[in-house]
Amino acid sequence: MKAKKYFMIPFLALLACGCQDEERTTMPLASGEEVQFGATLGQNATSRTIYGTEENNAFPIYWVNGDEVIVSSPECGNSNGVGSANYRVTVEGNSQDYATSLDKTGDIGVRWGDNPTGTFYSIYPASAEHTKLGSDFKTVTLTMPAQQDNNYKDENGVKTILPDMNACFMYAKTADVPSGKTVELKYKPLSTALRFNVVGPVSGEVTINYIRVYAPEGTSINGTYSVDLSTATDDALPAMTPVRGLNYVTFNVADSETGAYLTLGSGEYFEVNAFLLLAEETEITDKWYIEIGTSAGISYKKYLGGIAVDGKNKTLVPGKVHRLPNLPPLSESPKWDAANWMANLQRNVYLSEISIPGSWYSLNSEYQTRNSISTQYSAGVRAFHLDTRWRGTTRSVIGDTYLREVQDLGVIDNNDHSFNEFGVTGGDKYLTMDAPSFAEALGEITDKVKDDEYMVVMCTFAQGSGNYKDNNGGDWRHAISKACADNAKVIEASSLNENTVVGDVLDKVIVIVNTFTEGEVAGSKCLFFNMGITLAESDWSNLNDPNKYYHSPLTWYNTTSSGITMYGTHAQITTDGDSYDGGDRGWVPSFADRKQMATNILNWSKSNYSDIENYAHNAWIYLGLGGYIPGTGILGHDDAAPVAKELNQWIGNIVTNMNTEADYYPVGIVFMNYATDYSSVVNDILMLNNKYRKAYDPNRSPVDGEYITGGGGSPVQSAAAGYSSGMTDNNTDAIGWTRCR
Question: pTM for the complete prediction?
Answer without folding.
Answer: 0.89
